[in-house]
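Question (not urgent): is this output format expected?
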Amino acid sequence: MVCETFSEGDSPVHRLDARVHIVAAAALSVAIALSDRPAVLALALAAAAALAVTARLPVRPTLRRMISLNAFMLLMAVLLPLTLSAPALVRVGPVGWTRKGLVLAAAVTCKANAIVLILTALLGTVELMELGRAMARLHVPNKLIHLYFFTVRYIDVLHHEYQRLRRSMIVRSFRPRMGVHTYRSLAYLVGMLLVKSFDRSDRILAAMKCRGFQGRFCAVDRLALRRLDAVFAAAAAGLLCLMGWLQWR
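Got this back:
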C-alpha cells in the first residue's frame, strides 16, 4: 500500500471528520490562490504554519517536501522577473530583474508554501481509504471516486512492477547513456509497463464482476460530526472571512 507518512497520529487535526478536512482544504486553497495582498499572504502563511504545528506533522518529511517545493520556486523566482517588461531593479550584464517580477515571484512562492502546508496538514493526516469514503459522502462523482480508489490501491503495485522491469534490464547489462539505444530501451520499458497495466486492469475488472460489482462501492461506515469539527469549521470560516476582508476591503 502507498506510504501514509502523515496519517498516523493523535493530534486534534487527526481527530477531525474527513469531510471537514476536504471542505476546509478546498476552501482555504482557493481563497489563498485568489489572494494577492501581502497582508493576506502573510496571514495565510501564519495560519498554515499554525495548522502544521497543531497537526504535529513529522519534521523531517515535512521539511523535505517544503525544500523540494522551494527549489522549484527558486528557479521560478529567477526566471519570472525576466519575462516582464518593466524597468530593471537589479541588472547583471545584459540580464535585468524587474521589481514587478520579483514581487510576483514572492507572492507565488508564499501562495505555494501556504497551500502545500495546508493540504499536507489537512489531507495528509487522513487515511487514504477514509478520504475516499468521505468524498463519497460529499457526493463527489462515482467515476472520480473509482479513479481515486484504484490509483491508491494499485500505484504501489505498478511501482513494484516498474522496479522489477528495471532490475531485469540492469541484469542484462543495461546502463543509461545519451544515445538512441538508451532512449529505445526506456521506451520499451514504458510500453511494457503500460501493457502490463492494461492486462492487470482487465483481470481486476473480471474479478470484481465475479464478486458482484455493479458500478459503485458500498460504504457501511457512518461518519458523524462532533463538537471538535464544529469548532474547527467555525475557525476556518472566520479565517476565510478575515482573508476576504483584508483582500477586498
